[in-house]
Write a structure and sequence with these properties.
- By secondary structure, this protein is mainly alpha-helical.
- The protein contains three helices and no strands.
- It has a domain at about 25-84.
- It is elongated, with a radius of gyration of 17 Å.
- Keywords: Ribonucleoprotein, Ribosomal protein, RNA-binding, rRNA-binding.
- One of its GO terms (molecular function) is small ribosomal subunit rRNA binding.
- One of its GO terms (biological process) is translation.
Amino acid sequence: MANIKSQKKRILTNAKSAERNKAMKSELKTRVKTARATLGTEANAEDVRLAVKRIDMAAAKGIIHKNTAARRKSRLMKHVNVAG
């Protein structure tokens, strides 16, 4: 454990942000999985929209890299277009 007060604060702050990032990534995976599961149904458009929105939000907040976001959206849309 650190002895410096500011470093102790950073450890707590980093733990909070790591927890937030983990939750965001988990939700991201869930949204994409739901969007893929509903391919061919009428609820799919809304699920895809929400998945893309979450991917964009994660990229904007720096949780995932912007190129990773673009790749995930591209792959998702490819699945949607093949099924659609």
